[in-house]
Amino acid sequence: MKGYSEWMSRLIQALSKLPGIGRRSAERIVFHLLKAPGDEVTELARLLQMVKEKTLFCQICHNFSDESVCHICSDPGRDKGMICVVEDPKDVVAIEKTGNYVGVYHVLLGFLSAIEGVGPEELQIADLVERVKNGNVREVILATNPSTEGETTALYLTRILKPLKVKVTRLAHGISVGSMLEYTDQATLARALEGRVSA
Ligand SMILES: [Zn+2]
Questions:
Q1: Are residues 11 and 44 in the same domain?
Q2: What is the pLDDT, as a whole number, of residue 137?
Q3: Residues in the chain where the model's pLDDT stays below 50
Q4: Where are the beta strands (DSSP E) in 112-163?
């Protein structure tokens, strides 16, 4: 890379691969790091390593966690009778940001997709069924994305959960078709949760 030392070029290239960071931003970050105090950079490097090393999936809900059971599942203040099913840990963050959900979650870690060859066995679906069978679960809220795959996943889950005599609901409309939960504003998401409908 013209004008850059070998290490600078390598870091710029590595940073450019990150989501939302183009070549220009990567260059600015590298200049910033070189001017920053050494201990700040060391701490950043340590955090990058630790987040990867120490983050695991919660045994119960499959959200990212520092412990084998995440802080939401282990919170006695959360309503364990209400499970909100989402595709991805990012969706948990989106729903938590609304501030008015008191139940727990179940992260599928994906969505059903015939094209990508993702069947029910590839997702955390068997575990969800177990949770519903074993726990005192009153309601399962299907909060998959309003995409074709999300809808297919929700339909499939409705079909397998309904015979378990649990109330199955779906986020209300208002989240536009094709838009992702993680990019939906908090007020809209809160309304969709509030006005959920029977699946
Ligand atoms: Zn959990």
A1: yes
A2: 96
A3: none
A4: 139-142
159 Cα to the center of ligand 1, angstroms = 24
Question: How far, in Å, is the centroid of ligand 1 from the Cα of 8?
Answer: 40
Torsion sign (Cα): 12, 14, 17, 19: negative
Give residue 68 CA to ligand 1 midpoint distance, Å: 8
Ligand 1 centre distance from Cα of residue 40 (Å): 32
> Each residue of 44-74: pLDDT tens digit?
999 999 999 999 999 999 999 999 999 999 9
Range of the domain at 70: 64-198
What is this structure's pTM? 0.86
Count up the domains in the chain and report the number. 2
Residue 186 forms part of a structural domain: yes
How far is the centre of ligand 1, averaged over its atoms, from the C-alpha of 22 (Å)?
34
User: How far, in Å, is the centroid of ligand 1 from the Cα of 150?
Assistant: 21
Of residues 197, 194, 12, 198, the one with CA closest to residue 95: 194
Q: How many CB atoms lie within 10 A of CB 180?
A: 16
Q: Which two tokens stand for residue 127?
A: 């575990």
Distance 26 CA to ligand 1 centre (A): 34
